[in-house]
Design goal:
The complex is a heterodimer. By secondary structure, chain A is mostly helical. Chain A is built from 14 helices and no strands. Chain A has one domain. In chain B, helix 3 runs parallel beside helix 6. The chains are: A mainly alpha, B alpha/beta.
């Protein structure tokens, strides 16, 4: 195989894995948008908050320690225990369901029937609130998240793909990050689970019903409040998974919340209302930006990854506003 | 149609309700009606008379439209319905089929029907109910896998009624089933309503602008005019009433009248109020 083709393949593989992660973040948006028509600006912060909570719980940090110490003059910081990662993830999930309930109970219940722009503004407020709450609860320092996911390149894959070079001395086999591989598997499983829940369960069906017609959903006895808590919980869970993976990559810090921005072009490309669209959009953008950087990048001085996705999405918007797989707007005359 | 001689058990009692939208717009100005168990009761009147509002007041859907019952009582089997949440009302056996069908467009016909069973438990029972609905609407069985948004108006009306049946209701509030449908289809829908009423014992409260069809299928009726009940009685009596004939059926003793001659409409009906 010629060298450039081998490198190209490696780039595509890495792009696919990055794409799965983008898709994962985009999924959180799609779920909430589908069920309630809310574009959730806070999705990225939700990831940050989930990751911070996970680290805090694992390390036995006392929440609001600074606040308590300042108010009572005590010097407490840790419970003095470490919790198993799996248990901590479950506990974090409980916290995220709590967040979902609070968001519904104290914010969106009062905004039923308001304009989408008002709901959007509310999520911006929510984003900053959660960001502050996370800092107060767990401290604003950069934290290391280690839930036991493997790190570094996979030697096994390198060794077992070396033969593809057919004696080419410069080719050492494909370099694939093990964390990326695991993340891809987790994300794929999560996506399958989400599709299964929304297609084949009673509450999944109710969720799609609510997305179609609030009034009709109410009329058949579906509780909007319950469905919205349900959806925000799932979005919280997706945010947690994304937070774990990105947190393991680059530490838990504020910039984690910016991964939400990466999801925007994915959504434009795939369509705001489609779960498969989010996945395919993520893959296209992941592969596209890596390939573009690999081929065109050197000609224009690199750093194309920063803008490629947005330009691609923009071009797409012009020709297919509902996105690749967005719901067709059904109009009957 | 039905000879009502014996006193019937009252299923739903609406007593002098007032409804206000947005805290200012008074829509219902004291509506009272009682719906006998096992019957088809028609709620008649023109646009804006308050038919839909009355139904939504009963089903609890007013709240999501910023409407509020400010006076009066609604009791269903002795239980107060005002302030109850819509899901609870569906559980207690009253379900509304909204005007304009309101199918879940992106769900298939079958999924639409299954959402109707949201308050029900038991896979076997739900499967049986689905079969029952398909028996009433064989057309839906043929189209079970199509997206509801792409089915015809008549099929959507069937989906909406079938979906309501899936909740095992005691009473269906049916809002304007004839809207936008061809006369033949209207007749078909009403035939099905009648057979559901007779075979399943489901009580219907039916809001309808199409007075002549409604009065042929209903047992009794109420006529609403700008938020008030102006007349009520057995369907057979209403059909024969000269004012109903003139104002709602477009007939008079001298046969069909041209619309121009119905000018005296407003003045003449005043005594009704």
């Amino acid at each position: 195989m010629p060298e450039s083709l081998l490198y190209g393949t490696e780039v595509v593989l890495n792009g696919l894995m990055a794409g799965v992660l983008y898709a994962l973040v985009a999924l959180g948006f799609v779920l909430i948008y589908k069920a309630s028509g809310i574009f959730n600006y806070a999705q990225g912060v939700l990831s940050l908050f989930a990751a911070m909570t996970l680290v805090g719980i694992m390390n036995g940090q006392i929440p609001f320690a600074h606040l308590i110490n300042a108010a009572l003059g005590t010097e407490i910081h840790h419970f003095g225990w470490h919790i198993n990662a799996l248990v901590a993830i479950l506990l974090t999930m409980v916290v995220m369901v709590g967040v979902a309930w609070c968001v519904q109970r104290f914010v969106f219940r009062h905004l039923i029937g308001q304009e989408p722009i008002i709901l959007f503004m509310a999520t911006i407020g929510l984003a900053y609130f959660l960001e502050g709450l996370g800092d107060i609860m767990w401290g604003s320092d950069i934290k290391k998240l280690d839930v036991g996911l493997p790190q570094g390149g996979s030697l096994w894959i390198e060794e077992n793909t070396q033969w593809l070079g057919f004696g080419n001395e410069n080719f050492y086999g494909f370099f694939l990050d093990r964390l990326d591989l695991i993340a891809t598997v987790i994300a794929a499983l999560l996506v399958i689970a989400l599709v299964a829940v929304s297609q084949y369960t009673k509450h999944g069906r109710a969720m799609r019903a609510v997305a179609d017609d609030h009034q009709a959903a109410l009329s058949v006895g579906i509780s909007l409040n319950f469905i919205w808590v349900f959806v925000w919980s799932i979005a919280g869970f997706v945010a947690l998974v994304a937070g774990i993976i990105w947190g393991a990559k680059s530490g838990v810090q504020f910039s984690l919340s910016l991964i939400a921005l990466k999801a925007l072009p994915v959504l434009m490309l795939g369509g705001f209302t489609s779960i498969p669209g989010a996945i395919i959009g993520g893959l296209i953008i992941g592969v596209g930006e890596k390939l573009f950087e690999f081929t065109v990048g050197p000609l224009v001085g690199g750093a194309t990854e920063n803008w490629f996705a947005y330009v691609l999405a923009l071009i797409f918007l012009v020709f297919r506003p509902q996105g690749l797989m967005g719901e067709k707007i059904i109009e009957r005359v | 149609m039905l000879q009502v001689a014996q006193p019937q058990e009252t299923l739903l009692e609406v007593n002098n309700i007032e409804v206000i939208y947005n805290h200012v717009i008074l829509v219902l100005k004291g509506v009272s009606l009682s719906v006998p168990k096992g019957g088809i009761t028609a709620l008649l009147g023109g646009n804006g008379a308050g038919k839909t509002t009355t139904l939504k007041a009963i089903s609890g859907l007013l709240k999501s439209e910023r409407g509020e019952v400010t006076k009066g009582t609604i009791t269903y089997q002795g239980k107060n319905l005002i302030g109850a949440d819509p899901a609870g009302i569906v559980r207690s056996g009253v379900i509304q089929v909204m005007e304009g069908r309101h199918c879940f467009e992106h769900l298939t016909v079958e999924e639409n029907l299954l959402t109707g069973a949201y308050t029900q438990a038991g896979a076997k029972q739900i499967a049986d109910d689905l079969e029952m609905v398909y028996n009433y609407f064989p057309r839906l069985k043929e189209r079970r896998r199509s997206q509801a948004g792409y089915t015809s108006g008549g099929e959507q009306q069937m989906v909406a009624i079938g979906r309501a049946l899936m909740s095992r209701p005691e009473m269906i509030l049916l809002d304007e089933p004839s809207m936008g449908l061809a006369p033949q289809l209207v007749e078909q829908i009403f035939e099905i309503v009648k057979s559901v009423n007779e075979n399943e014992g489901v009580t219907f409260l039916l809001a309808e602008q199409n007075t002549s069809v409604a009065l042929r299928y209903a047992h009794s009726g109420y006529i609403l005019e700008s938020g008030r009940v102006v007349m009520d009685g057995l369907a057979a009596d209403l059909r024969e009433n000269p004012d109903v004939k003139e104002f709602y059926l477009g007939m008079s003793d001298d046969g069909r009248k041209s619309f121009r001659d119905v000018r005296s409409y407003r003045r003449r009906k005043r005594w009704l109020a």
